[in-house]
Amino acid sequence: MNPRAAVLLVLGTALLLAPVAAPPFWVTLLNYIGLYSIVSLGLVLLTGVAGQTSFGQAAFVGLGAYTTAYLSLNHPAISPWVNLPIGVALTSVVALFLGFITLRMKGHYLPLATIAWGISLYYIFGNLEFLGGHTGLAGIPALSFFGIEMRSERHFYYLIWTIVLASLWATRNLLDSRPGRAVRALKGALEMAEAFGVDAGRLKIVIFVYAALLACISGWLYAHLQRFVNPTPFGPIQGIEYLFMAVVGGAGSVWGAVVGATVITLLKQVLQDWLPRLLGRDGNFEVVVFGILMILLLQRTRDGVWPWLARAVPQRKPLPVSKATTLPKRSRGNEGVLLVVERARKQFGGLVAVSDLSFELYRGEILGLIGPNGAGKSTMFNLISGALPLTSGTIAFEGRSTGNRQPFQIARLGICRTFQHVKLIPAMSVLDNVALGAYLRGSSGVTRAALRLDRREEAMTLAEAAIQIERVGLNEHLHAAVGSLSLGKQRIVEIARALAADPCLLLLDEPAAGLRYLEKQELAALLRSLREEGMTILLVEHDMDFVMGLTDRLVVMDFGEMLAQGLPGEIQKNPVVLEAYLGGV
Ligand code: ADP
Ligand code: MG
Fold it and tell me: Is 348 in the pocket of ligand 1 (CB under 6 A)?
């Protein structure tokens, strides 16, 4: 047996036998660890992976708990099992609303907003008469399962941990999928994700709802385990603690949720038991010591405890990628004008970065956009890709104006780009980074991905990514973390990612920067072969030798203005261009 399977087998057996072998007190503790794990799993996704900090998850636990408590007591004819989907529906509506109004906020405003609505919901629970006010609701019935009343911790243990494992499975599936790659891009690479068609605003709300639903399920379980609810466990302090669990466990991995819930629950228990004995007097000392320990832990290990444990569990080898079936390709027209830029202007305050520039791009050509540093090339590039809005003028792609479209909508038209400063997800493999490029060619959403119904499309996406990686000559790095590659190679990964999108127009911002002579020649050969396939390429480049040998036409910019345009041979002899570049030599 391989070591990984052995570790999993031991853990699985321990999990299965725990309620039989352990004393009831421990089973209760394990039940709570399970309940907390479910909530912090949502935070691993929302905060750890997507970078959206929420202090308010406890309120969603409360929604799940109060919904079933109220319905069980007032409408006993409805089965508590039916209360779960009702709670889920209610939580979805509330989370959609809260997500819609808060997730557009950036920086510290978002966490503050989550605290604010966390507190509001907490006071709503405490102030509504029909929810029992601050005393809460008692006498909630136990769940029954095929006629067996689940009155003991042991019964509940199996239900809770089945749900924990199912949530782990679903969340892992989700992270390992089309929407999952996009979620991983939300933290730190948002601009890139949007350039490949990800509707980031919508995706943030979707995972916010996902995390809220996990919290709601935990609340539903809690209400029937405890059989009593009051507002305290759904308040802001518990909200902070859930976040602690995710961060301490390791917010980058689904297992971090379970590890964090375990560490914090056990630590609090131990401190509660031992501190009064050590100090010889009662008092809430555990809170103080707990706080100090948290600070020390976060100082020592910012990625949480899980990465340490993960080293002890042998990792699975990546599966080989079959290139048998790939995604369908779009048809490209092969003649005429593809893109028309007319009097495009971009001002940053008083600075005119692009000044009424007009040019055209023909299908199947490589157009070079050159000019000294600060000439406005990258700005022009960002105007085309929609990363920056035009101050005035128009840009039309295949006859359709791109002016009032978001970057992800422009990507949908068939325009893909690389970035002058590479924007990759460093911890993710080359394969996954490139597969993100094919985002628009797939359609699986969060639900399909979580339930693993997306495997056919996923296989085709990975095949497409692998083919593009092979094409750019990075086959040997397929499964390497992209951050471990040299900067030059990372630029090439960016090209593979853009190709995975199957664009009509490829925008390359200084792709040859940082490449060695031979690598540049390989890149030039690659771009030529793309042109032969009908791809149109706009190339911003510094290296004149590289540009002259490769491009069909050149547009020369200086101080935001068009200096000249024409064939490379003409431009090379143009005195105005020589003046700008070489200072009149
Ligand atoms: P290039 O790519 O040709 O080197 P850029 O397009 O990056 O030039 O920059 C053109 C000019 O616009 C520069 O003077 C630069 O400082 C300015 N600029 C670029 N982006 C911004 C921005 N976001 N805000 C303010 N000024 C900017
Ligand atoms: Mg630039």
Answer: yes
- Residue 582: its pLDDT value, please? 63
* Segments in the chain below pLDDT 50: 584-585
- Tell whether pTM > 0.85: yes
- CA–CA dist 364, 536 (Å, integer): 4
The rounded distance, in Å, linking the Cα atoms of 490 and 513 is: 11
How many Å lie between the centroid of ligand 2 and the Cα of residue 424? 18
Which residue of 191, 346, 351 sits with most ligand 1 atoms within 8 Å of its CB, as the best mutation to test the pocket?
351
Structure tokens at 444: 């699986």
Give the closest residue (by CA) to ligand 1 atom 7.
Answer: 378
Q: Which residue has the tokens 């039309």?
A: 396
Tell me, using a 6 A CB cutoff, whether residue 382 lines ligand 1. no
- Which ligand has the shortest distance to the CA of 420? 2
Q: What is residue 505's predicted lDDT score, i.e. its pLDDT?
A: 94
In this structure, the residue with its CA closest to atom 1 of ligand 1 is: 374
Nearest CA to ligand 1 atom 24: 348
Two tokens, residue 17: 């036998």
How do strand 351-362 and strand 228-229 relate by DSSP bridges? Answer: unpaired
Paired residues of 344 in beta bridges: 357
Q: Which tokens sit at 290?
A: 């707990």
How high is the mean pLDDT of the chain?
91
User: What's the pLDDT at 166?
Assistant: 97
Gap between the Cα atoms of 443 and 555, Å rounded: 38
pLDDT, position 175 = 95
* CA-nearest residue, atom 22 of ligand 1: 348
Residue 447 burial class via C-beta count within 10 angstroms: exposed 0-12, middle 13-18, buried 19 and up: middle
**Are 567 and 554 spatial neighbours (Cβ–Cβ below 8 Å)?**
yes
Rounded to the nearest angstrom, the distance between the alpha carbon of 228 and the centre of ligand 1 is 61
DSSP 375: S
Q: Tell me whether strands 137-138 and 144-145 are parallel, antiparallel or unpaired.
A: unpaired
Q: Report in angstroms the alpha-carbon separations of 319 from 315, 431, 459, 479, 522.
A: 12, 11, 11, 9, 29
| Cα angle 157, 161, 164; round to 5 | 150
**Closest ligand 1 atom to the C-alpha of 560?**
10
Tell me, in angstroms, the distance from the centre of ligand 2 to residue 582's CA: 19
Give, rounded to a whole angstrom, the gap between the first and last alpha carbons of the chain: 73
**Helix-helix angle 57-74:236-249, to 10 degrees:** 120
Q: How far is the CA of 346 from the centre of ligand 1 (A)?
A: 10
User: In this structure, which residue's CA is closest to atom 17 in ligand 1?
Assistant: 353
What residue ranges define each of the domains in the chain, with the CATH number in brackets? 32-265 (no CATH), 335-414+503-585 (3.40.50.300), 424-500 (no CATH)
Q: Which helix (H) or strand (E) segment is 137 a member of? A: strand 137-138
